[in-house]
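Appendix C. Worked example: Ribosomal protein L11 methyltransferase
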Amino acid sequence: MSEIYIGYDFKVAPLQPGVEILIAELGYAGFESFVETETGVTAYIQKEEWNENILEDIQILGSDEFEITYTYEDIEQTNWNEEWEKNFNPIVVDDVCAVRAPFHDKFDTKYDIIIEPKMSFGTGHHETTHMMIQHILKTDFEGKSVLDMGCGTGVLAILAEMRGATTLDAIDIDNWCYLNSIENVERNACKNITVYEGDASLLEGKSYDIIIANINRNILLNDIKTYASCLNKNGALFLSGFYNDDIPTIEAECHKNMLKLSEKIERNNWVALKFLN
Ligand SMILES: C[S@@+](CC[C@H](N)C(=O)[O-])C[C@H]1O[C@@H](n2cnc3c(N)ncnc32)[C@H](O)[C@@H]1O
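Step 2, the predicted output written as C-alpha cells:
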C-alpha cells in the first residue's frame, strides 16, 4: 500500500443527507476512507489512485440543493491513522452493548465488541447501526441461523453470535468491508461467522431464521424478494438504511413477499424495521 494519501476536506451544507450522499459517490470514485467532521467530511484516497479529474463525476458537487466546498492536501499515512483514531469515539447502546476500538478502555457492559473499522461503515455511530443493535438486543438469537447482508465491519453479525446464533453468513459487496469483517470476526473470537464478498446473488439455495440487512432503500427494494425466499418459517427480517418517508415503499415490497411489519425503531428520521413471515 502506498505511504501517501490525498486528503480532501469537504464542507457540506446542509450536512445531512449531503455528507451521506457525498461519501457514497466518493466511494465509487475510489476514495477509501472517510472521517466525518462537524462541518462535513474528510475523505482519503491513495495518491496512486488519484488524478486531477477525480471529482469530475461526483454529481452532488453540481447539485443546487447542497453547498459544498473543499480543499485538499497530501497526507502521510501515519497522520491519517491518528486522525481516524481521534475521530472514533466508543459508543454504548442501551447500557448493554459497547462498540469500541482496540485502543479504547474496556466497558463494563454485557457485550463488548471491538471493531477496527478503518474504511468500512459500522462503528455503531450511525443511527442505523445503533437501531439494528437495539433490535438484535431485543431478539432471541439462541441456536438461530443468521444472514448479515451488507455487513460493513461485521458488527451486527458479531453481536448476533454473542447473542447465541450458531450459523452466520456475513456478506458485503465491498472488498474492504469483506476483509475488515474477517479481521473483526477474529478479533472478537467469533467462531460461527463465515464472511463472503458479494451480493444477493450469493443467496441461491440458502436459508436463514433471521436476516439482517442495513444497506439502503434501493438495494433493499431490489433484494427483499430474495431475502424473503431465503427466510425460514417463523423467520424475522430486519431492515434499515432508509428514512421514515421510505416506509410505505419498503412495506409494500415486503407485503408483496408475504412479510408483515411487526416493529419499528426510529432515530433522527432514520428507521429500522422488523418484518415477520
Ligand atoms: C449502511 S452499511 C451497514 C454496515 C453494517 N451492517 C452496520 O450496520 O453498521 C451498508 C453496507 O452494505 C454494503 N452493500 C452495499 N450494497 C450491497 C449489496 N448489493 N449487497 C451486499 N452489500 C452491499 C456496503 O458496502 C456497506 O458496507
